[in-house]
TrEMBL record:
It holds the Pfam family HD_5. CDD domains: HDc. Gene3D superfamilies: Hypothetical protein af1432. Signal peptide: none annotated. It comes from Brevibacillus invocatus. The lineage of its organism: Bacteria, Bacillati, Bacillota, Bacilli, Bacillales. Residues 104-309 form the HD-GYP domain. This is HD-GYP domain-containing protein.
Length: 362
């Protein structure tokens, strides 16, 4: 399979990886043949990329670090919890929601089990979801990314659990913000911006009232918009004044936000997102944590369609953990624009191909 932009998809092509609704259920399943109507519907729902079947890349299968079943359960749990808080805001005033903490501990335990068994896999977030599902899928992605960093740092089981639960629920305060504010495509007023920013404190207040959620987990909600140089909010904390869990969540939050489609912009490619993060190291983010994060994220994920500086176009067939910016490419189109008769692969890590570089993701 290969991942392509929605503008390159043609009727008759077949979906290679399912697309999900906001609650984790399938919108369009693997094996469905696309029609003009389906394609227009996907565009309307905010899907800008998808995986399609292709005879030249049928053996290229991107791996996610967690199982589809784990992801679906996690998204469904986040969806039910957050929509309850949106529809019934009085719930947040209760001292504690029954089994709230235990529920999310169980969810992250499944995520952690998957992560622990696949430490050698560079993170490639392969899930595709509708725009309205961003808040719920984003929370799960942030938990996965944060969990990868926690494992790389050698956190013990309790530390992993506190980090993971905090990461799953770091944005729970957004349930108290009017949806028209956080999904608006136009610029917010100063007053509206302050209202959105208050979600960090609202999230902290919701989480710290739960008996089975550690206070350090609640700090992920409070501090994930703090910045390493003190330019963040709500308290303008700097450096190690920010809890390490929140510093990890901040990196994961920004990365997944960048690679996701938002109402006000298109998604970034993983390579552009990682470039942004690295440029912001030691100003917005803890540079040492950022280095760990970037060592475990695929800059050019398997199945990505890319263009080389020669003009050749191909699909990433394999990533190299020793040089994440030099993957193996299966060439599908030559520099003159003609399709290849028989696809062939070039390993950008090999000396003979050192003059070749990836110039953009298609």
């Amino acid at each position: 399979m290969r991942k392509v932009h929605i503008t390159s998809v043609k009727p008759g092509e077949v979906v290679a990886k399912s697309i999900f609704l906001e609650n984790g259920n399938v919108l369009l399943g693997q094996g469905v043949e696309l029609t003009d109507r389906y394609i227009q519907r996907l565009v309307h729902l905010g899907i800008d990329t998808l995986f399609i079947q292709d005879k030249h890349t049928e053996d290229i299968i991107p791996e996610d670090v967690i199982r589809d079943e784990t992801r679906k359960e996690a998204v469904d749990t986040v969806f039910k919890t957050m929509t309850t808080l949106v529809d019934q805001p009085q719930v947040k005033r209760r001292t504690s929601m029954t089994d709230f903490g235990h529920t999310f501990q169980n969810v992250f335990r499944e995520i952690m089990n998957d992560l622990s068994g696949r430490r050698d896999v560079l993170v490639n977030l392969t899930n595709l979801h509708v725009l309205d599902g961003y808040l719920f899928h984003h929370s799960v992605n942030v938990a996965v990314l944060a969990g990868v960093v926690g494992l790389a740092k050698g956190y013990n089981q309790q530390q992993m659990m506190d980090l993971g639960v905090g990461a799953l629920l770091f944005d729970i305060g957004m349930t108290q913000v009017p949806k028209e504010l956080w999904s608006r495509q136009t610029t917010l007023s100063d007053e509206e911006r302050q209202r959105v920013r208050y979600h960090t404190e609202e999230g902290f207040n919701i989480l710290r009232s739960q008996h089975n959620i550690a206070l350090v987990s609640a700090h992920c909600a409070l501090q994930h918009h703090e910045r390493f140089d003190g330019s963040g909010y709500p308290r303008e904390l700097a450096g190690e004044q920010i809890h390490e869990y929140a510093r990890i969540v901040a990196i994961a939050d920004v990365y997944d936000a960048l690679v996701s489609t938002r109402p006000f912009r298109k998604s970034f490619s993983p390579s552009d997102a990682t470039e942004f993060l690295f440029a912001a190291g030691n100003s917005y983010f803890d540079l040492e944590l950022l280095k760990i994060f970037l060592q475990h994220v695929a800059i050019y994920p398997v199945a990505s369609t890319v263009q080389l500086n020669t003009g050749q176009i191909g699909v990433v067939s394999q990533v190299n953990p020793l040089a994440v910016n030099r993957p193996t490419i299966r060439i599908l189109q030559e520099m003159d624009g003609s399709p290849v008769t028989t696809p062939y692969e070039i390993d950008l890590y090999e000396k003979e191909w050192m003059s070749l570089t990836i110039v953009r993701t298609l």
